[in-house]
C-alpha cells in the first residue's frame, strides 16, 4: 500500500512536544457556480526531533498514528524558513521511525511480561465462544471417562463419544491438564 505524500506549510511550532500544526492547501468545488475555490485543511504532524520552525514547507505522509489526533509524520523539509537545515536536528527517515517504534513496542512488551510474571515469549491464546464450548465439552467427556473407568456399562457410550471427538488413543490426563488451563 502506497501512502500519499503531501506538501504542507508549518503554521504552529514549539507549542507541543514533538508535534507541529500544518496547513495543507486544497481546492473545493462549488457545483452551483461550477468553480474551484482555495481552502486549507489543518493537520497535527509528528516531528520527532523538533526540527521544524513556523513557515517551513515540508513533505508529510499519513498513516503513522502517534496520538489520538496526530496521524501524519514529517519526512522532509522542502523549503526551510529562517535557520538553514544544517543548523537544525535531522529529520528522521521512515525506516528510523519504524525502528524506534519497534524498540518501544519491544520494551513495553518486556515491561508487561515482567509485571505479570509471565515468560517474555508467552502469549495468552485467544479462544472464541465456540472453541470455548468445544473445549468445555471435551473436558467434561474426559472427566466422565475417568469416572466411568470402573463401570463397564457406562464406559461404552463415553468411549464412543471420545472417538467422535477425536480423542481416542490420546493421553487423556495430559489433554485434561491442557483443557483446564
List the helices and strands and how they pair.
Blueprint: E1 5-16, E2 19-30, E3 35-46, E4 57-62, E5 70-79, H1 94-116, H2 129-148, H3 152-165, H4 172-180
Parallel strand pairs: 3-5
Antiparallel strand pairs: 1-2, 1-4, 2-3, 4-5
Task: Describe the structure using short key phrases.
181 residues, alpha+beta, five-stranded mixed beta barrel, 36% helix
Structure description:
The protein is α+β, with helices and mostly antiparallel strands. It is built from four helices and five strands. It has helices at residues 94-116, 129-148, 152-165, 172-180; strands at residues 5-16, 19-30, 35-46, 57-62, 70-79. It starts with a strand and ends with a helix.
N-end to C-end Cα span: 40 Å
- Helices and strands, in N-to-C order? EEEEEHHHH
The largest beta-sheet arranges its strands as: 1-2-3-5-4
Using only C-alpha atoms, the radius of gyration works out to 30 Å
Oligomer: single chain
Instruction: Give the class from helix and strand content and strand pairing.
Output: alpha+beta
Helix count? 4
Offer a quick outline of the entry.
Helix content is 36%, strand content 29%. The protein has 181 residues and is of the alpha+beta class. The chain is elongated and about 90 Å long.
Amino acid at each position: 500500500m502506497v501512502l500519499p505524500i503531501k506538501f504542507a506549510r508549518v503554521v504552529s511550532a514549539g507549542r507541543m512536544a514533538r508535534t507541529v500544526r500544518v496547513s495543507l492547501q486544497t481546492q473545493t468545488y462549488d457545483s452551483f457556480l461550477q468553480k474551484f475555490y482555495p481552502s486549507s485543511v489543518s493537520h497535527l504532524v509528528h516531528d520527532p526531533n523538533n526540527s521544524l520552525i513556523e513557515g517551513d514547507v515540508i513533505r508529510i505522509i499519513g498513516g503513522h498514528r502517534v496520538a489520538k489526533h496526530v496521524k501524519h509524520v514529517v519526512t522532509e523539509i522542502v523549503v526551510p524558513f529562517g535557520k538553514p537545515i544544517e543548523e537544525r536536528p535531522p529529520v528522521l527517515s521512515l525506516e528510523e521511525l519504524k525502528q524506534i517504534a519497534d524498540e518501544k513496542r519491544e520494551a513495553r512488551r518486556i515491561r508487561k511480561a515482567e509485571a505479570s510474571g509471565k515468560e517474555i515469549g508467552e502469549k495468552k491464546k485467544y479462544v472464541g465462544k465456540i472453541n470455548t464450548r468445544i473445549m468445555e465439552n471435551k473436558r467434561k467427556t474426559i472427566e466422565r471417562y475417568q469416572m466411568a473407568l470402573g463401570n463397564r456399562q457406562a464406559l461404552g457410550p463415553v468411549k464412543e463419544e471420545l472417538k467422535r471427538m477425536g480423542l481416542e488413543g490420546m493421553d487423556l490426563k495430559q489433554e485434561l491438564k491442557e483443557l483446564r488451563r
